[in-house]
TrEMBL record:
The protein, known as: Sec-independent protein translocase protein TatA
Molecular functions (GO terms): protein transmembrane transporter activity
Gene3D superfamilies: 1.20.5.3310
Keywords: Cell inner membrane, Cell membrane, Membrane, Protein transport, Translocation, Transmembrane, Transmembrane helix, Transport
One GO-annotated biological process of the protein: protein transport by the Tat complex
Function (record text): Part of the twin-arginine translocation (Tat) system that transports large folded proteins containing a characteristic twin-arginine motif in their signal peptide across membranes. TatA could form the protein-conducting channel of the Tat system.
């Protein structure tokens, strides 16, 4: 009871192709590739964030407001008009 031979793997692949079809498998592999790329990009972003020091948040009437995430009044007015 050793490892599978090449013929066993060919039979397994044929059965999988018959069950799922070629289009579904290629779509699944594409999704896996997108996930890997997204993961690598996220890891690169995390390492970039660690290299730069964090800016302290400003305080406004006892509430913490991040400097870059605060919406401008004109941006919120445009959203309500639309």
């Amino acid at each position: 009871m050793g490892s599978f031979s090449l013929m066993h793997w060919v039979i397994v692949l044929l059965v999988v192709m018959l069950l799922f079809g070629g289009g579904r498998i290629s779509g699944l592999m594409g999704d896996v590739a997108k996930g890997i790329k997204s993961f690598k990009k996220g890891m690169a972003d995390d390492s970039d964030d660690d290299a730069t020091p964090a800016k302290p948040a400003t305080r406004l009437e006892g509430h913490r407001v991040p400097e870059q995430d605060a919406p401008t009044p004109s941006a919120t007015e445009e959203k309500t008009k639309a």
